[in-house]
């Protein structure tokens, strides 16, 4: 088993969580990641649309390992007459998974305001019985209430808030009994695992058996994180969460190897290589299939027309796209499989 720097991984995860990065809001997290990559001893390359690449060494037959930095979140759709914000999702965020969540609203001018995602009406004690039964809907009965004394749309506009402003959700990270609970385990936990591997390789002087590029993408949640790849790439390995559920094999303590998602199967040969590596290393792993609403950045690379093999692995994670939970063992096993595959 390859040694796993748990303390660094959790610190990197929390640092990434501290930066709101709703898909499209990439500048700050791109810069933080580039600086951390330099600190670890590598030279980062920034992609034009938002993302970071780093060459981890090795020769020939290039492999990209990707983990995405973008989060699901919200955007201001319009300003309501009472000064609250009508919002729409960015990525797969649903009202029932974010009502009552604290948020930050980022204006075009650089100001940041806090608020809360609320039902309309927002107090259960003064809501008629029929209205209590209504499902939350962003267009009709869910809004963001600002922590500012606004009473009208004009009041809110005077703050600099307007349609198109990004809204980030509070992650609420906790660690208890090895269980990691937070929003955005998908996919900042996997990004932290990849940084942890880079740290170990540099400190221990480890060279991968083939050329390996780390790719921290910023548009996975809307489907085009790695629709561009560097020249010559042969394979793409995505690090992403493995959702748990009644029909799933995935468990929070284990690493999952993805056989298929909602789009199509992963490459049989590459998936077999990962399975062999997990068995040889004695890792706690499972094979799993994720349907009907799941995909990874590797799918985008294939759909973009690249002649590549693609595969995906990741820690079992519950409550996907909500207040998610995984276990440090799941991160450790994901780390171990990635290291076993490339070294």
| CATH topology name of the largest domain | Aminopeptidase
Radius of gyration: 21 Å
Net shape:
globular
Query: Any idea what the CATH superfamily of the largest domain is called?
Result: Zn peptidases
Number of helices: 8
Summed up, the domain count is: 2
User: Tally of extended strands?
Assistant: 18
| Unreliable segments of 5+ consecutive residues | none
Order of helices and strands: HHEEEEEEEHEHEEEHEEEEHEHEEH
| Major sheet attributes | 9 strands, mixed
CATH architecture of the largest domain: 3-Layer(aba) Sandwich
Q: What structural category do the secondary elements indicate? A: alpha/beta
Briefly say what this structure is.
By secondary structure, the protein is an alpha/beta fold.
Care to describe what's here?
This protein has 343 residues and is an alpha/beta fold. It folds into two domains: 6-71 and 184-342, Zn peptidases (Aminopeptidase); 73-169, Peptidase M42, domain 2 (Elongation Factor Tu (Ef-tu), domain 3). The protein is built from eight helices and 18 strands. Strands 1, 2, 3, 12, 13, 14, 15, 16 and 17 form a nine-stranded mixed β-sheet that branches. Strands 5-4-9-6-7-8 form a six-stranded antiparallel β-sheet. A hairpin with a 4-residue loop joins strand 1 and strand 2. The radius of gyration is 21 Å and the shape is globular.
Task: Walk me through the topology.
Layout: H1 6-17, H2 27-40, E1 44-46, E2 51-55, E3 63-68, E4 73-79, E5 85-90, E6 102-106, E7 112-119, H3 129-132, E8 142-146, H4 153-158, E9 166-169, E10 174-176, E11 179-182, H5 185-204, E12 212-217, E13 235-239, E14 242-243, E15 255-260, H6 268-281, E16 285-289, H7 297-303, E17 309-317, E18 324-327, H8 328-342
Parallel strand pairs: 3-12, 3-13, 13-17, 14-17, 15-16
Antiparallel strand pairs: 1-2, 2-12, 4-5, 4-9, 6-7, 6-9, 7-8, 10-11, 11-18, 15-17
Helix pairs in contact: 1-5, 5-8, 6-8
